[in-house]
Amino acid sequence: MTTRETTGGARAVAGLLLAAGGGRRLGGRPKALLPHRGRPLVEHAVRVLREGGCATVHVVLGAQAGDVRARASLPGCVLVDNPDWEQGMGSSLRAGLASLTGTGARAALVSLVDQPGIGPEAVARVLAAYDGEESLASAAYEGVRGHPVLFGAAHWAGIAATAQGDRGARAYLKERRPEVALVECGDVARPYDIDTEADLAHLE
Predict the structure, then answer these.
(1) Given a cut of 80, is residue 163 above it in pLDDT?
(2) What is the SS3 assignment for 22?
(3) Are the beta carbons of 181 and 138 closer than 8 angstroms?
(4) pLDDT in tens, 173-200
(5) How far is Cα 202 from Cα 134, in angstroms, rounded to an integer?
(6) pLDDT by residue (tens digit) across 20-32?
(7) What does the longest C-alpha to C-alpha distance in the chain come to?
(8) Is 133 exposed, middle or buried (0-12, 13-18, 19+ CB in 10 A)?
(9) Which helix (H) or strand (E) holds 120?
(10) How would you classify residue 78: left for phi > 0, otherwise alpha for psi between -120 and 50, otherwise beta?
(11) Burial level of 127, CB count in 10 A (0-12/13-18/19+)?
């Protein structure tokens, strides 16, 4: 790999935002449309990816996808509908990776719409771990793996084959634990999820 390929690697990494969840424990409110800083949460999550260095962003939609398209301003994003979103995060990850195939992207940086405590600093740190299509990297919080995660294109087929239910890429990463570069982000991000009514207190 040349120095230019390494230093310019961020241009080859696409942001992949999983935003299909229906918010079952939130009374059926789609997480993408939860209000945060006066706008739908999905807009914030896209902005974080872009400010962290992802020029291209694919957004996987599911629950009330039509409402999300109508109410959220997502210019320049590739919007991917996942009709199987109720099957869990794994189906959204598969749909998102499939949407990147053939685009020229050499890696995907995956984030979740319901983690507003993770900002551009964490995205930029994980993005910096990219060094080609064999890359595997993950944010870590006090040594514990979390999001965002970076998957080189060489791993997409294997991840898609094992992404089931709400496990996403967990099984794939566990099998390849020695290959995964952990990037500590606990000093710049908080990896909480917006899953329950009590968690809504984290939104602004």
Answers:
(1) yes
(2) coil
(3) yes
(4) 999 999 999 999 999 999 999 999 999 9
(5) 36
(6) 998 888 877 899 9
(7) 51
(8) middle
(9) helix 120-127
(10) beta
(11) buried
